[in-house]
Amino acid sequence: MCEHVRALRNALAGNASGLELARELGTFATLVAVLRDVARVSDGAWGGASDDYARGMMFVLQTLINAGMDDPRCLTDAWEADGAFHTLEAVAETRGGRAARSHGLVCLFVNMCVKHDATRIMRLTDSAASSFWRLLLIASADSTEPEGVGGGAKLLDLVCTVCCKGDGLPKIFRGLSPNATEIAAMNEAMLRARLVALAEDESHINEVNDTPAPKTSTRLKYVTEQATLLHFIATVMDDKVATSYVDIHHSKVVPGEQPPLLMPEGVLAFLVDTTSLSAARFAAAEDDGERDNALCVLMECVSILRAVSEREVKPHAGDTIGCLAAMGLVRLVLSLLASLPPPEGIGQTSKATGPASAPKLEAHIPKELKSDVVYPNKVPWAGYRVDLIAILGNACFNRERVCEDIASLGGVPIILNHTRGQDNEPYLREWSLWTVRNITNGSEEARKKIIELQPQAVEQSDELLARGLGVELNSETQKPRVVRQDGSQTTARDLPPNMRPKDGNGIVDVAEEEEDVEEAIPSNWKVTEL
Question: Looking at the structure, do residues 158 and 11 belong to the same domain, yes or no?
Answer without folding.
Answer: yes
